[in-house]
Amino acid sequence: MNMNQNVDTSRDASIAALTTLLTQAADALAQGGPELAEHASELRKMVSRPPRVAVVGRLKSGKSTLVNALTQHVIAATGTLECTMAVSMYFDGAPARAEVIGVDGQVERIPLGNGPLTELGMPLDNVDHIEQFLPNAQLRRLSLIDTPGTATLTVENEARTRRVLVDGQKDTKRASSWADSLVFLSDSAPREDEKLFLSQLGMTPLTSIGLLSRADSFGEGAFGHRDPLDYAREHAQSIAGELKNSVSQVLPLSGFMAESALVGRITGDVARTLAHLAPLGREQLLDVIELPDPSTVVPGFTAQMRDMLLDTVGEYGIIAGREIAARDGAVGLMQWMVERSGINRLTEILTGEISYFAVLQRAVRMLDVLDELAGGNVNREHVRWVQSVTLSQPGMHFVMLYRSYRNTYASTPDSTLLGPLRSAIAARTAAEVVDLPAAAPADQVRAELQRRLGEMQNMAMGLLSAAEDEARERLVVAYQAALKAMS
Ligand SMILES: Nc1nc2c(ncn2[C@@H]2O[C@H](COP(=O)(O)OP(=O)(O)O)[C@@H](O)[C@H]2O)c(=O)[nH]1
Ligand SMILES: [Mg+2]
After folding, report:
1. Does residue 159 share a domain with residue 57?
2. Three-state DSSP class for residue 317
3. Residue 290 is part of which domain span?
4. Ligand nearest to C-alpha 216
5. Could you tell me whether strands 208-212 and 181-186 are parallel, antiparallel, or unpaired per DSSP bridges?
6. Nearest CA to ligand 1 atom 9
7. Which of 34, 282, 323, 366 keeps 20 to 30 A from 51, CA to CA?
8. Cα 226 to averaged position of ligand 2 atoms, centre (Å)
9. Tens digits of per-residue pLDDT, 131-158?
């Protein structure tokens, strides 16, 4: 069975084209002497590697479980091991190993067996971060950064997360380790300090997604009156409203169900054991879960069997999955868990849209670094030449739109131009540039483009921030280009 059917490859060609362009720019920069070559090598690494997703959220919000679900492999330790308290990066690579990087730059290399890392090889306080390499198809598309948590009672965890994700971003010599996109997990309403933290990560709503995590136990949980996943889906909308300045959407997710199904815990034995409970009513089920000895309710059904089910399918899986197990067996149960978990939609967004925006974002960061170097005193003529050649490439159109979006978002987060910019950045057709369906008739698209152009011209009279004014000009260019492409 193909478990990757939800990988979105539709943006791959755009991503590849932009990667080529930026790699060439880095190579050109390297021609400017040894000092520029050092920057160029870091930039080249940054723009040519798979987009890197940072997973953040409070302690126990389900971050490591999600990392396992996304890689379909138990690579991230969950629970309270010391390893879970360091920032861990996951890459595709062989042989399977962990490299524990000390704050002093010392590297401890630890071979990995089949399970997650269980020791650090140095005191936790000496660890800057851990890099783990595994031959893994999922990691070939996206690499992951698991963090020990923010806004928790454990101040040290937050400090470690910040050192890599916030302070690290400011150091252009470490450009290749910057995160490109963000997944924020929360199993309840986000707090002010979390929102503040999100605003410090150098992302925009286009490169960030929120998750209402542990959705299988949301609200009153599996035995409540509403299906927790459906309830979580509804509630995710209100969290999305609260987080609208940080993330573009919030999805409900059960990382637990996704992990369990995707790492192969749903065996025939699990399905058969669960199927025994199919005929039970709600009250009897509650007894099976709560009584020390469930065989008094279902003869032959032991506490051990019950605990095994709790570990593999959880309370929600027991109550909502037992009939599926009886009817469709292990494969059906597993597919149902994957579908209900929300992991497919997340994978689709992370591999498609967000990867594309992440690549635009790092192109912008590369332009930032070039700007900085152009103002420095190492061969700036050369740097300026690289800048001007890079900026004149047609492929940079979307990068410039994204830069405008980022600058407008930073200076005027409630600007009315952010929506139109977003559409223009994500558009694949002229119609989509102005929020019309791709199949809209040409006349209608032309008329709407003209109308938007008029709107942009009128805005020039109004009060705009500097970033907005540039955004307005970029949109004029985008609308004109779309009109031209149609003629
Ligand atoms: N019910 C439920 N439990 C979860 C889910 N995700 C994680 N957990 C549990 O929550 C605990 C903390 O998860 P972990 O991934 O280590 O959280 P982290 O601290 O954010 O990395 C573990 O016991 C997980 O089994 C979920 O989607 N549903
Ligand atoms: Mg963790």
Report:
1. yes
2. helix
3. 260-341
4. 1
5. parallel
6. 62
7. 34
8. 29
9. 999 999 999 999 999 998 765 545 667 7
